[in-house]
Amino acid sequence: MTIKRIACVLALLGGMVSMAAQAQPVVREANAPGAASKGTSAEARRRSQDTPFAFRGIALGITLDEFRAGSTVRATPLGSVPVCETDVQAGALGMRLKSHESLTVACRWAHRADDGWAVSQAVVDGAPAQEHVLRFARADGQSALRLYEISFVIDEITAEDLRDALADRYGTPRLVTHSASSSGAMPVYAWENAVSSITLCFLPGTRNGTLTYLLKGSDAWVKSVVRQWQASGAEAG
Predict the structure, then answer these.
(1) 28-55 burial code (b ≥16 CB/10 A, e <16)
(2) pLDDT band for position 37 (cuts 50, 70, 90)
(3) pTM to 2 decimal places
(4) Which of 14, 129, 178, 187 could bridge to 152 as Cys pair (CB 3.0-4.6 Å)?
């Protein structure tokens, strides 16, 4: 991870945001009276505040088993599948191989090429991302690994288009300008609800963007998982 990307992550975790099930659409009943319709809309907005964000239907908080079982693959080329650190193919993709008892697990989409397995490109706003990763951890002593972070590196044009699309969907973002020393300021845009957040950070120099979906509070329980692993001395990861 470059210094610029580390600075972007620090901007997210340093009190600005804890970040990534899309907000539920407002439910409207065609024949309901105005008062009932307003009540339904208010209830839908309330539910959306309590529902984690999702990346194109992949909701934060789902279990690793649910992620694997789902047919949702947001990557190119066609035929891409999830490959996680618990899979034997992980080593071929440069990922660390972990046991099924690991406390944290990372996944990427991949495909079988002519010379073996290769990392696929996640599709963000209709364009291939430069990098992507989905991270799972066991929260609060639960046995299931749950998705707490989805992150991407995207090009500047895609990032600008995505900023406008997210603003249309979720409203005006909170803007935080984070200084990256001599590299200049990094504009960081954040959308939040009660349980999750989305951040879009423009990196100076390259002007690439980092897009991060994150469950709120996940940084705290991931640190707890790390402390648990260190205390146990087990090969959990």
Answers:
(1) eeeeeeeeebeeeeeebeeebeebbbbb
(2) very low
(3) 0.77
(4) 129
